[in-house]
Amino acid sequence: MCSLAPHPFLSLSKPFTKRTLISLRNVIRDSALNKPGILADSSASPSRDAAVLIPFCNVNDVPGILFEVRGKTLRSHSGEISFPGGRIDSTDKSFLAGALRETREELGISPNRVEVLGELGPTEVNLRGNMRVWPYVAFVHGHQINEKGTLDTPLSSIDLEDVWKHRSLEEVASVFHLPLQALASPVRLKASKFRGGWPYWAVDVSDLVEAEKVEHGDGEFVDEVGCGQEGRIEIWGLTGWYLSLLTRILQIHS
After folding, report:
1. Which pLDDT belongs to residue 218?
2. How many CB atoms lie within 10 A of CB 76?
3. What is residue 65's predicted lDDT score, i.e. its pLDDT?
4. CATH number of 18-250
5. Domain locations in the chain?
């Protein structure tokens, strides 16, 4: 695994534009990783489905991806970094509809601000093996999808403070933006193996996540956000795996 130059259309420092989104949609559609029938765990037989949104966005005209830290009161994966999303229920018309619903419930982001760019594949199952997780790639606009301007006009940035205010306090402990330029930094990348056998990059985001301090009975304070090796706060596990698949498609790293 080594660092590569990103696709020519993708700038790691300039904001996303309409032209960028067109190119992203085409690359995701045409990617060999998106061909069906190749699963990292083809032996699993999940009984339920979930869906997540991988939300590209501009923040202060800086391109990146929006992440959340799961609330500590959740029954599973509490305190870990994830994409917005969750279990599909009977009211959802599709897996994508479920991902959009969960994004609105967790982060207060309305579907009319979300421009879906494609479906990432191959899909995987959760650690227990009883749920298939469907990942969708999208761009979150600061205002509306049909923005004015040319193909090269920077798209509107989201307001992180507003997302913070409207997040679900029960489900989301924190929200942060990972710039593409930071994602391409080799010092952040830790070679890991998904489910013990599939190589991918875990990403150190310790400096981007504001950890919540909790006082224990002995008077000492400990971090209650994130999980990683040697005290790092990392994007790892299934979230890290899907992020790694996406960055390989975009040639940010391989």
Report:
1. 45
2. 9
3. 98
4. 3.90.79.10
5. 18-250
